[in-house]
Design goal:
The protein has about 350 residues and is an alpha/beta fold. The protein has 12 helices and 15 strands. InterPro entries: ADH-like_C, ADH-like_N, ADH_Zn_CS, ER, GroES-like_sf, NAD(P)-bd_dom_sf.
Length: about 350
């Protein structure tokens, strides 16, 4: 088969690799029908995730068709159409029993495209298949479903829920890329009084408006003054970091009000300064997290019911064989206007 293989920082290639096979009785082999590229994949290529070693097949977001199941798989059959979650779950360790699947101690967590081969390939092995896939109704397209593999549950759980967004809150989302847009989309479910998006790219600020932001700001337009002007000088109730660089995290801590929450979603590859000398007295809560994907069934139901419109997030479509071009387009959003790119089987 062909797959996208990581060759070290700044290097990837699309070429022939061995077909995946069932290794554990709980595995399934899936033909990849649709896949997307995540900002985390760009962090890997940037050298920010050293656990990913050269030779690894990248990717952790896919929709596919089951081709083979291990002897211990009971909930899937050959031919089933499934969403492959970005998080794998053994189901029996202490963290899985708490629903904290991202911290799985039994060989799961974020492993696809990280510590084992991922899904940017023609075929993929999905460990713990009964707990790490979701059967899809015919009413949800591959393109809509693939956005539920990672960015929707990540933004919802690590951003909106960790940030404890409540009706009437002022919510700031720093970074209007796919994760930030998904945070805006799901924050709207809680009827905030203001949804403010901050980004450098005009195209992404325009997208943020389409997804529900009522105020958009460039970083050089004095975000602190704008936020204070709509909050009686107090600052935002919840600030969601959706970039993953020190500057954006530090900006978030300046925009939050006393008693507010900063929810970090972004993947950081460098240390960020934490100004505890200023924050400790303001009762600010800071949360971090890897998505657990416990919300995926709920989000699938909302997409199926028409309550979440994810279609506008996909800006570019490619055949799977054109994945190198897709990476180039996705990595240059300011020039290309790319939000999410979706690649499908030819």
């Amino acid at each position: 088969m062909k797959a996208l293989v990581y060759g070290g920082p700044g290097r990837n290639s699309w070429g022939e690799t061995p077909d995946p096979r069932v290794i554990d009785p709980r595995d399934a082999i899936v033909r990849v029908d649709a896949v997307t590229i995540c900002g985390t994949d760009l962090h890997i290529l940037g050298g920010d995730v050293p656990a990913v070693r050269p030779g690894r097949i990248l990717g952790h977001e896919a929709v596919g068709t089951v081709q083979e199941v291990g002897s211990a798989v009971s909930g899937l059959q050959v031919g089933d159409r499934v969403l492959a979650s970005c998080i794998s779950a053994c189901g029996t360790c202490v963290y899985c029993r708490q629903g904290r699947y991202g911290q799985c101690l039994g060989g799961g967590g974020w492993i696809l495209g990280h510590t084992i081969d991922g899904v940017q390939a023609q075929y993929a092995r999905i460990p713990f298949a009964d707990l790490s896939t979701y059967q899809l109704p015919a009413s949800i397209s591959d393109e809509a479903a693939v956005l539920l593999a990672d960015i929707l549950p990540t933004s919802f759980e690590v951003g909106v829920l960790n940030g404890q967004v409540q009706p009437g809150d002022t919510v700031v989302v720093v970074g209007a890329g796919p994760i930030g847009l998904a945070a805006i989309l799901t924050a709207r479910l809680y009827s905030p009084s203001h949804l403010i998006a901050i980004d450098k790219a005009d195209s992404r600020l325009q997208a943020a408006k389409q997804f529900g932001a009522d105020i958009t700001i460039r970083p050089d337009d004095d975000p602190l003054e704008v936020v204070r002007s709509v909050t009686d000088g107090l600052g935002a109730h919840a600030v969601l970091e959706a970039v993953g660089i020190p500057e954006t995290f530090e900006l978030c801590t300046t925009l939050v009000r006393p008693g507010g929450r900063v929810a970090n979603i972004g993947v950081h590859g460098r240390p960020a300064t934490l100004h505890l000398e200023e924050l400790w007295i303001r009762d600010v809560t800071i949360t971090t997290g890897l998505v657990d994907t416990y919300s995926t069934p709920r989000l699938l139901n909302m997409v199926a019911a028409g309550q979440l419109d994810t279609g506008r997030m996909v800006t570019h479509r490619f055949a799977l064989d054109d994945i190198i071009e897709a990476y180039d387009i996705f990595a240059r959003p300011a020039q290309t206007g790319a939000l999410k790119v979706v690649l499908t089987r030819s």
